[in-house]
Amino acid sequence: MAEELHVLFGAGQVGQLLARILMGRGKRVRIAKRSAVGVPKGAELLVGDAADLDFCVEAARGASTVYHSMNPPYYARVWAELIPRYIENLIAAAGRNGARLVVLDNVYMLGRPQGRPLDEDTPPNPCSRKGEIRARAAERLWEAHRRGEVRATAGRASDFYGPGGTLTHLGDQFWRPVIAGKRGRVLVDPDAIHTYHYIPDVAVGLATLGMAEDDAYGRPWMLPCAPAETMRALAARFSRHLGREIHLARMPRILLKVAALLVPFLREIDEMMYQWEEQFVINDARFRARFKQQPGDVEQAAADTVAWAKIHYASAGH
Predict the structure, then answer these.
(1) Banded model confidence at residue 2, pLDDT cuts 50, 70, 90
(2) 33 near 39, Cβ under 8 Å?
(3) DSSP code of 273?
(4) Same-domain status, 214 and 301
């Protein structure tokens, strides 16, 4: 019997790990992306652009499951162009090949928690440009499932941290100075209660959805996560495994707003700051109950993150 083929569009901080997990479970893996960078050993590679429908259809040929873990550069104008195109192309590619589609998504489309944990029943209520774009893409996905164009599901996660997470709030701007013995720079309120998703938990969750029964499709799932906590508590856990205390240096909100007038990327960050203005809690109980899957041990997660950061940020190039 031929190995079951799983096709991944994107091989970034989540996709690379997802590919390794799937191969470890005996699946044949093909990665479709614009370059060979980040492709794990043992995975097939097809180079191309997911904005090209023909490329997507060809890349998904023979697949049982297609995964969408791409994320365009963090600018609303780029998202407005590429996110709808990606979702349309992958719906078509998976559908034409008889494959199921698993989408990695965030929770931007849900907007402000308004005093309640966010779960699968929270209705879309975006309060940002990027949230509006994500909401439209999500609705298109569920519409395609309802119409029988594709069998689809989505795994949703809040802010990432962990090995490979260079483009996160606990990524380059945090770890580069920490490893150099300085304060970790943060843009958000380090004392706000917030759900942080550990990258390996996200990858394992997507693999679980990719191999789930069909009745798990047609709806989103909150991926498994540790209980919400402050970034300061998370940094204290890192400190224990680093062997010295990590002090935090937060950019004041007023300074962020002023800087955002001059730096386009900071404007993109500023519109998402509402997520740290009240408790921002993800409820993953439904995923845990259905799939009997728990997030990884938080101490081991901290230890593995520190071990990765020491290696990754020790070289002169980082």
Answers:
(1) low
(2) yes
(3) G
(4) no
